[in-house]
Structures are given as C-alpha cells and as structure tokens.
Write a structure and sequence with these properties.
Length: 91
Amino acid sequence: MKTNITLKLDSELLRNARIIATEEGWSISGFLASKLEEIVSHRRGCARTKKRALARLPKGFEIGFVRRLPVTSFINDKAFTSPAAFLPICK
C-alpha cells in the first residue's frame, strides 16, 4: 500500500533533485521513493550483517594455525581492544 507524504525542502535542493530525477527518467516522487528504498535496504543489510558478526564473535573462527600467540601481544594492540574493530563499516 502506498501512502502520500508532504515534505518541506529547500527550493534549491528541490530544483537540483528535479534535474537529477529528470536526467534519470524519474518523476520527483519516484526518484525520492527509490533513493529512500535504497537507504532503508542498505541499513537493514548492515543490521543483519552486524548481528551475524556479533553472533560469531564469541565463537571465533578456526583458521588452521596450530601455534598460539601470547595473549599479551594482542592486549597491547589497540586494534584488538574492541569487538567493534571486527564489524563491517555501516553507518
């Protein structure tokens, strides 16, 4: 189901958006709807990826190394102080 909304935009922003929409063969409404859908879809994908990464973090991964490094070498490395260092970059 589609629902109409009302937006207040800066006139210069709206003018530039209309130009871009026209160049891409969209109406302004279709253009804004497609861009909003892209943003929402990207955010949902990032949230799923982050959730999967956090679920895997406590388990770790077996990558085939037999030799264990001393824990202190990782503790002193700032890249390994936060679990967030291993998460994909999503804003």
